[in-house]
Design goal:
alpha/beta; Purple Acid Phosphatase, chain A, domain 2; eight-stranded mixed beta sheet; five-stranded mixed beta sheet; 18 helices; 15% strand; globular; hydrolase activity; Metallo-depent_PP-like; Calcineurin-like_PHP; Calcineurin-like phosphoesterase domain-containing protein
Length: 437
């Protein structure tokens, strides 16, 4: 069990009992109970139990998909046991003894959906300033915001749609910036026609995009992307109106956002500066979403450092290829038929790299974290729908929070607002050849 400290500031009940994770040893009991949330332990052992699994001798806290909800972040930190919360404020805590020696992984998607992106980012910076070892991994919402800001006004076919691609979920961020950094009446001087020309792709873009995207974006997805951009061009102005903002207000707030996030002296420049796409944790790959055959091959040949090098090069040189290509799959894939493929060849590449499992978020689940096999890889799915707006849409209780704690003894604990027990994954029950180093 984690040592919760400051539960009076958590607002949600934290579990004090444990349950094996996965719950069932075999498929028969799982089927009898009509409970197929997790893969049974025998399935995990049959598929990968013979692998020489390496488990780091250090505590790691895995958070993901907090989506602009600083209160969910506070609850998740308290649930981890990595902090000792002392008061109601975002900064009223200290690292616990375990937290001082641990790694805190924030696996993407701090932007969009929730009530306050800026407050969440400031809260994360507080954790860094308190001396925590923090790793930030790229999520699709994070990268969508970054490239939208960076390529505002560019008309090349690879870039002209990237601002609109952020969509209506990002507009509250500009409302925050307007309220906190701009004076009343501080708006763009451009005309409405000029704003439309600047912010939105024109018809020429819709004609040229398919040929530019061919070979990089799967064929099934090109038509979907064109349709989605047209939808977003309608949704975005409507969302602005609902927020009592004009396109001129959005443009002015975007200009300020570029200073805050992209300029080296900007208040939030640190967030993207610290970001990687993946991290190795023993025999686990830590990532926002997943892999495909190409990235698995890269990992086999160049390890995770090669993937991060590729990520940073594309981030600087070609955000379109970053977002839509194989590296983008690491923060976007849901293994759909239009995503880049992950097959037996990719599994073999992962094995060559000594990677037998993936810990990730990205796919909303509603009963806490789960464990399953995807192709031939162990997957810890950790997006437990913690932000308040996702929870409202899903019909969940008001307060969310979740964390997976990887302990130095080969045990992983799944803790969430939506499951009454701490889920206890004992790696020795799956990997007879487990090595803790």
């Amino acid at each position: 069990m984690p040592n919760y400290q400051g539960v009076e500031f958590c607002e949600m009940p934290l579990p004090v009992t444990t349950e094996p994770w996965p719950k069932f040893e075999g498929r028969r009991l799982s089927d009898l109970a009509n409970e197929n949330y997790d893969a049974p332990r025998e399935e995990l052992r049959e598929r990968i139990g013979h692998k020489p699994f390496i488990w780091p001798n250090r505590t790691m806290y895995f958070f993901c998909d907090v989506h602009a909800d600083a209160d969910a972040w506070r609850r998740s930190l308290i649930a981890s046991g990595g902090v000792r919360w002392l008061g109601p404020g975002d900064d009223e805590y200290e690292l616990s003894e375990d937290g001082r020696d641990a790694l805190f992984v924030i696996a993407g998607d701090c932007f969009d959906k929730g009530p306050s992106t800026l407050r969440l980012l400031r809260a994360i910076k507080l954790l860094i300033d308190k001396g925590a070892d923090v790793e930030i991994l790229a999520g699709n919402h994070d990268l969508r915001t970054l490239v939208g800001l960076a390529y505002l006004g560019r008309k090349e076919p690879r870039f002209a749609h990237l601002f609109v691609r952020m969509g209506q979920k990002t507009m509250p961020l500009f409302q925050e910036i307007r309220a906190q950094y701009l004076e009343p009446g501080d708006t763009s001087e451009l005309s409405e026609d000029d704003l439309h020309e600047l912010l939105f792709p024109d018809e020429e873009w819709f004609r040229r995009f398919p040929s530019v995207a061919k070979g990089l974006v799967p064929e099934k997805k090109i038509g979907k992307e064109l349709k989605r951009i047209r939808e977003k061009m309608v949704e975005l102005p409507r969302k602005c109106e609902a927020l009592d903002m004009s396109l001129g207000d959005i443009h002015r707030a975007t200009t300020r956002a570029r200073e805050l996030f992209l300029e080296p002296e900007g208040e939030f420049h640190w967030y993207f500066e610290r970001m990687d796409v993946a991290r190795r944790w023993g025999s686990f790959l830590l990532v926002h979403a997943g892999v495909d055959d190409v990235t698995a091959g890269l990992l086999a040949e160049h390890n995770v450092s090669g993937a991060n090098t590729w990520f940073h090069r594309l981030l600087a040189d070609d955000p379109f290829e970053l977002y839509h290509g194989p590296i983008g799959n690491m923060f976007r894939t849901k293994y759909r038929d239009f995503d880049h493929r992950f097959t037996d060849a990719g599994v073999e590449h992962m094995y060559e790299a000594g990677l037998y499992g993936i810990v990730h978020g990205h796919q909303n689940i509603l009963r806490g974290q789960r464990v399953l096999m995807r192709e031939g890889l162990l997957n810890f799915e950790c997006d437990s729908s913690v932000d308040c707006n996702t929870r409202k849409l899903a019909g969940l209780s008001e307060h969310g929070g979740a964390v997976v704690v990887f302990q130095p003894n080969g045990v992983a604990l799944g803790i969430s607002a939506d499951y009454p027990h701490v889920k206890v994954f004992d790696a020795t029950q799956v990997f007879p050849h487990l090595t803790i180093v």
